[in-house]
Design brief:
The protein is of the alpha+beta class. The chain is built from five helices and three strands; from the N terminus they run αβββαααα. Strands 1-2-3 form a three-stranded antiparallel sheet. It binds FE2/S2 (inorganic) cluster.
Length: 142
């Protein structure tokens, strides 16, 4: 059903887990399917630049949502916050081989949204306690 890149990220997700002392957390959920993801960022300051030093995620959702979040973490690790904000759904789908089925393309939006929320929370300096208002409580993987 899915290509090898998606299946590899789904079966062996990169950067899955929690950063307990994260500098920012972003959460996003899709109320229609109930999937939810949470991103944890550790940010390092190098001069005036703020760089994503570590990133981890928890995704409770479909295979494409997990693959998307996994590939997102690989794409933004080591990037500045502004560079990371330019990694969008289209770039993630391309990194996953470009053939995410149309019915599953919304799954990429969750990862993009969770990252934006995390960075916004970091910039607001209230990151750890804030989450996406549309997010639901995590549930078990499908
Ligand atoms: S089906 Fe909901 S995120 Fe994939």
């Amino acid at each position: 059903m899915y290509n090898d890149i998606i299946m590899e990220h789904f079966r062996h997700p990169k950067n899955q887990g929690v950063i307990k002392d994260a500098d920012a957390v972003g959460e996003a959920g899709n109320p229609q399917c109930g999937d939810v993801m949470k991103l944890y960022l550790k940010i390092k300051k190098v001069g005036k630049k703020e760089i994503i030093d570590k990133i981890k995620f928890e995704t409770l959702g479909c295979a494409v949502a997990i693959a998307n979040t996994s590939v997102l973490t690989e794409m933004v690790k080591g990037k500045t916050l502004n560079e990371a904000l330019r990694v969008n759904r289209v770039a993630m789908i391309k990194a996953l081989g470009g053939d995410v089925p149309p019915a599953k393309q919304h799954c990429s939006l969750l990862a993009e949204e969770a990252l934006k929320v995390a960075i916004k929370n970091y910039r607001n300096r209230s990151g750890r306690a804030m989450s996406c208002p549309t997010a639901k409580r995590p549930r078990k993987n499908k």
